[in-house]
Amino acid sequence: MTSGTPARARGRHRRRCVVAFTAVLLAALCVPGAAPGTAAPAASLWFDAPATRALTVRDGRFTDALGREVVLRGYNVSGETKLEENGGLPFASAADAERSAHALRARGGGNTVRFLLSWAHAEPERGRVDRAYLAAATEQMRAFLRAGIRVYPDFHQDLHSRHLFHADSWYTGDGAPEWAVGNAGYPRESCGLCLFWGQNITQNEAVKRASYDFWHNRDGVQDAFLATAQATMAYLADHLTADEFAHVVGFDPYNEPHAGRYDPGQDSRTWERDVLWPFHERFRARMDAAGWQDKPAFVEPNLFWNANIDFQREEGGLLDAGGALGPRYVFNTHFYDQKAISGIFMWGKAKDGQYAGDFAAVRDRAAGAGTAAVVSEFGHPLTGTVADKAPTVLKAVYQALDSRLPGTTWWSRPLASGPVLSGTQWQWDIYSGRHHEAMNGNPGKVLTEGDAWNGEDLSAVRLDDTGRPVLRQDARLLDRLYPSAVAGRTLAFTYEDRSRDGSTTLTWNPVPASLPHVAQLVGTGQYGLLLWRAGNGGGTPAPTELHLPATFDPARTTVVTDLGSVHAPPSYTPGTPVAVAPEPGGTGSRRLLLTAPDGEPGGRHFALVAQGASAPPDALLREAERELRAWAQSAHD
């Protein structure tokens, strides 16, 4: 772990380089990709500040204040919060948070983080909120906000509380403080012959009873949690600037809720209706009281509602939440391929379209609830007996986030693609493999490897020997092309990342032979294709934005679009139909900006973005555009 000069002090001494243009303030980087503390923040483009004034839910999609559809992509920051070594904070220092934020944006391609908080550390004594903890958490959160990254906090728990477990336990938990569980007379925890820590949820009597008591507000324990949550939200609203608070997009009330046990005659669905949903409504009221009226609650259903092992699945998905959830709530769910993780129920590796059905269920449930969806956790172990599946499992998950179709059918029926889903991968922990965690306070069980929590190892990042954050997974998989803001409505999107499984390049969505010039232009490189309908109801000329991965050098990027095809797109100026600009935050990350002509509401547009190609002959560019224009006009579902 590393530390350094506090971020706030460093910020006062940063040099700034702002380039003035005649009509607008354009983004300019002093040192693209420079380390935190040396790079001046990029000046925003004219539409950036207005766009971030609010993030709302409209017509089942996230929308910014300019009416553009928004996709949130990023990581959980971080499982370090579940440990004690840094006092329930994601980072040892604000400097580490800044270093991590810059790497997440520039190398991981994220525009959003789910920021974990600890109830145990926010309220270490009943009725006393630890303002020092909140101050430290706020300063670490600020590092991400300054880097142009949206944030939604999460009061995290797994297995309810570390304080249910003993010094010699095989497992541990996190979440509730000691005062909430210490005097309840729970039995000594035991999961029996459990191969995976998650089995404690349904087999460990201490965890089951403590969870049940929380949901039934034994001794006012749920009331205390809600009061602390309100105090935390009020603190954030009071101590972040208005611009920073605008980048906080909502709050996740409770991670992976489960009943613990059901009352007689109750099942998972009636528990959601009678117990879980009223809790979410109470949390929503606390948000309103804390000044978060305009931000949605990212509410989770029973965690087993979409389990992909049949005997583990429980009916749910907030089906009985009093009608449509509406814009004040977001349908927030997780997905882990438990078959693949088990090493028993899925032999071999994930394939094209592996999770199309699983994520179609998420889209359908959100649509039925009248709101947007976010898959706030997904991932796969990077070490251990099933680690060989990780490259294909993660590729298949990202494919399913992008579209509900497998690659084999995407080109033939793109309008069945569905909305592009938001998601945050588990996890982004720069201390991966460098922890020093005394498990359950036992000095004889100091954990250093992986995530240092119940044998997990899922972090996409680590620190190298120089203290620099580096990726542990293929950058082609993680740093992805995606439509971060669409001026209109997304009709279809796909991205062929060409990520690797060992030495094998995974190509699940090749350009079909019916588009020979497009196939020739793309070759073996990465490419993405967005099909959208212009017009957002606000009349704004703000462009459509796609995050441009670091592998897409603008000088070697080709964009084939009805707006005007171009190789090596120029820097953005107002009215330039295809252009490149830095993303806000001064991290060196870039975006592709596509500006449709004024007065074309409802017009269908397409943009193919291809990487690594030398300048194509004009004839090839024209033929590729002709093929795509005909394809887009005839596209159907």
Automatic annotation (TrEMBL):
Domain Glycoside hydrolase family: 74-412
Keywords: Glycosidase, Hydrolase, Signal
Listed name of the protein: Cellulase family glycosylhydrolase
InterPro entries listed in its UniProt record: GH, Glyco_hydro_5, Glycosphingolipid_Hydrolases
Domain of life: Bacteria
Family under the similarity heading: Belongs to the glycosyl hydrolase 5 (cellulase A) family.
Leader sequence residues: 1-39
Source organism of the structure: Streptomyces coeruleoprunus
Keyword Signal part of the UniProt annotation: yes
Pfam families associated with the record: Cellulase (PF00150)
